[in-house]
Amino acid sequence: MFAAVLDTSVLWPSLQRDFLLSLAAEGSYRPLWNTAILEELVFHEAKKLESRGEHVDRATTRAQRLIGQMSQAFDDALVTGWEPLEGTFDLPDPDDEHVLAAAVIGGTEVIVTSNLKDFPAGRVPKPIRAIPPAEFVVDTVRQHLAPACRAVLEICARSGRRGPALTPDDVLSTLAERYGMTEAAELLSNAPGLRRTSR
Questions:
Q1: CB burial class (10 A; 0-12, 13-18, 19+) of residue 190?
Q2: Residue 193 and residue 80: Cα distance in Å, rounded?
Q3: pLDDT, tens digit (0-9, with 9 covering 90-100), for 80-98
Q4: Which secondary structure element, helix H or strand E, spans residue 5, and what is its range?
Q5: Which of 48-57, 58-67, 170-179 has the lowest mean pLDDT?
Q6: In whole angstroms, what is the distance from residue 129 CA to residue 76 CA?
Q7: Given a cut of 90, is residue 1 above it in pLDDT?
């Protein structure tokens, strides 16, 4: 199965993370990460929750629970043995070396990241390439339209448990407007699997 390393930058925005992982849960691709990515995600997720009024201890606990759920759902996602390669790529930001190291050891050709400038093509060994989440999502949706429809419907089904229930239109509008996934949202809005369920 096609695999992609998901950088922390694409995992901490909540709905974007939910959509990326829902696509993976439907078998569209295999997500990869390492311990450093997960540790960064705990930090940023906890800070996000604190900014919304959560007490620091509860925010950290919730962030750690998220990582536990991700690790359980995707028990083959963790790349190990990447540490010896960290610091060998001369990336502009040394803090991103671990992401590229995970991609090399994980044997993937794609890093999904919002920080493209930190992975210049001349420093990234071929055939690995860094692409933004919107590009990754539209390519994945094109190749796996039915599973992508199921992913949207699953997000809607889960949404009412913790907050207001979402319709497919709600999800697609947010993906397009907040995360720039306009092309993928258009493909999905015209898909037979969603057309009858949207408002």
A1: exposed
A2: 38
A3: 999 999 999 999 999 999 9
A4: strand 3-6
A5: 48-57
A6: 22
A7: no
Alpha-carbon distance values, 83 to 48, 98, 120, 198 (Å): 28, 7, 21, 46
Q: For the CA atoms of the chain, what is the radius of gyration?
A: 17
What values do phi and psi take at 118, rounded to 5? -85, -5
The model scores a pTM over 0.90: yes
CA angle, residues 102, 104, 110, in degrees to nearest 5: 85
> How many alpha carbons lie under 13 Å from residue 72 in its C-beta half-sphere?
6
Q: Are 130 and 116 in contact (CB under 8 A)?
A: yes
What is the token pair recorded at 97? 């070396």
Q: Where residue 195 falls among pLDDT bands split at 50, 70, 90?
A: low
Contacts (Cβ under 8 Å, ≥6 apart) of 128: 100, 103, 104, 108, 109, 110, 111
Average pLDDT, the chain: 93
